[in-house]
Specification:
By secondary structure, the chain is of the alpha/beta class. It is about 30% helix and about 25% strand. The chain contains 6 helices and 9 strands. It has a 5-stranded mixed beta barrel, surrounded by 4 helices. Helix 3 links the parallel strand 6 and strand 7. Helix 1 packs across helix 2, helix 2 packs across helix 5 and helix 3 crosses helix 6. The two termini are about 30 Å apart. About 45% of the residues are buried. The structure holds hypoxanthine.
């Protein structure tokens, strides 16, 4: 694994003149952020050695290097989901590579279903903590001390400092933001009413099918993490609306300008 990471990082380094300290995984709700990046270099995933091969034809995704405001960043356009069939090492490989390139702060976004009764569709939830319900931990197996400790602490998975900064930005801009615990599940099914209730009972505010693997690896690698969810649907035993991919996309598009605004400003101020 070390050799693969080194090889991939070396290839990417050879493609760009400068290496970033800030990484962004452009999940649902943040796609538009790309329009604010002054692009220096794009590298399609299928040209990058060791990168997982996309399951969606014609949508391989790409790494984007460029300036978001004054800040030089690398952004992942397209991520690898566990439900697509990738294993946890493949899902998190790009985070390893980012770290090897020198990235020390990771921004992530996703779409999630809300269980917290105060949430509304289109809300932005700053992730304060998560619960890992994936069937596997990405760190299972041999530990490489070069990458991080065998038993990493997860006491502050999401940077309190960045959360406070995002709150300040949201206040200044008059954007409603919620705080909450993200429950990471393998998917691809949305939850049954009883599952949404169960996730609420165990302390979750929203549930989704990504992010947790990447954040675990980022923390293993001692990175600072900030995450946001866009609440695209609501779940619980009293909720009868049927969530669909289309509905998720629609709600995400609605919240997108606000997500973009917060992220842009946050990246500028770190
Ligand atoms: N459950 C799981 N993942 C999701 C949901 C949901 O309700 N909404 C968006 N992603």
């Amino acid at each position: 694994m070390l050799e693969k990471i080194r090889q991939t990082a070396q290839f990417i380094s050879s493609q760009v003149a400068e290496l970033p300290k800030t990484g962004i995984i452009l999940g649902t709700g943040l796609g538009q952020l790309v329009d604010h990046i002054r692009i220096i270099k794009e590298i399609p995933y299928n040209e990058i050695p060791n990168m997982p091969v996309s399951t969606v034809e014609g949508h391989s995704g790409k790494l984007i290097f460029g300036y978001l405001g004054e800040r030089y960043v690398v952004a992942m356009q397209g991520r690898f989901h566990y439900y697509e069939g990738y294993d946890m090492k493949q899902v998190t490989f790009p985070v390893r590579v980012m770290k090897a390139l020198g990235v020390d702060t990771l921004f992530v976004s996703n779409a999630a279903g809300g269980m917290n009764k105060e949430f509304r569709v289109g809300d932005i939830m700053i992730i304060t903590d998560h619960i890992n319900l994936f069937p596997e931990n990405p760190l299972r197996g041999k530990n490489y001390n070069e990458l991080g400790p065998r038993f990493p602490a997860m006491t502050e998975p999401y940077s309190r400092e960045l959360i406070a900064l995002a709150d300040e930005i949201a206040r200044e801009k008059g954007i409603r933001v919620m705080h909450g615990v993200y429950v990471g599940t393998p998917g691809p099914t949305f939850e049954t009413p009883a599952e949404y209730e169960y996730f609420r009972v165990i302390g979750g505010d929203a549930v989704g099918m990504s992010t947790v693997p990447e954040v675990i690896v980022a923390k293993h690698a001692d990175m600072r993490v900030f995450g946001v969810s866009v609440i695209t649907d609501l779940g619980g035993k009293d909720i009868t609306e049927v969530p669909s991919h289309e509905e998720v996309q629609k709600a995400a598009i609605q919240a997108q300008p606000f997500m973009t605004e917060i992220m842009k400003e946050l990246v500028a101020r770190i």
